[in-house]
Amino acid sequence: MIKTGIFGGAFNPVHNGHVRLAEEAVKQLKLKKLLIIPTFESPHKTTKLAPFDVRAEMCRRAFSHIEGAEVCDIERRLGGISFTINTVRALKEERPDEQFFLLIGGDMLFCFDKWYKYESLLKETKVCAVARDNDSLVDMMEFANEMGRVKVLPTKAVEISSTEVREKAAKGEDISQLVPASVAEYLSHDPVYTEGAD
After folding, report:
1. Is 109 domain-assigned?
2. For 86-135, how does the pLDDT look when each residue is reduced to its tens digit (9 = 90+)?
3. What is the pTM of this model?
4. Distances (CA, A) of 33 to 7, 44, 65, 71
5. R_g (Cα) of the chain, nearest Å
6. What is the CATH number of the domain that holds 137?
7. Any bridge partners for residue 128, and if so which?
8. Which among 21, 59, 64, 103 could disulfide-bond with 7, CB atoms 3.0 to 4.6 Å apart, if both were Cys?
């Protein structure tokens, strides 16, 4: 079985924190493939998303250096609200020779039991939560133990939020320390985040 990571999210926009999470997961889990899956329609976020093709292109640029990484449009093909369990089941049908590892950020772990059919997700894929800082690691380990079937991967912190990037980009401020250079260059030519936008 080929070990394949599933890394989904709004990526609105993708930033260095996302890239670090992906790099660490590939290294620690020894993944052969990594599917980067931009959300089509988020069940969680109320913020207006940049067009799917724009977010997908930013992801292609951001993760291109990671061997085995590819941007996957499965949630657009499925349509409607992007529930992770539906994505996982569709991937298992399309890729029967692959073993899937669902990658989530540490912040997502603490609300994972509120996800749609989260118990099925725990049974159908290996859930791996990536810690962002040492302070949350102990809490994450305790929560994961209570939940069961969740692996916690410790990493060095990269504290960045997509909201911060959007706000700076909208004001024309420098975002070169927050996003990969290729993403900053893309946004300089296609300013999808403008003052007054969500």
Report:
1. yes
2. 999 999 999 999 999 999 988 888 899 999 999 999 999 999 998 766 55
3. 0.92
4. 11, 26, 13, 11
5. 16
6. 3.40.50.620
7. 103, 151
8. 103
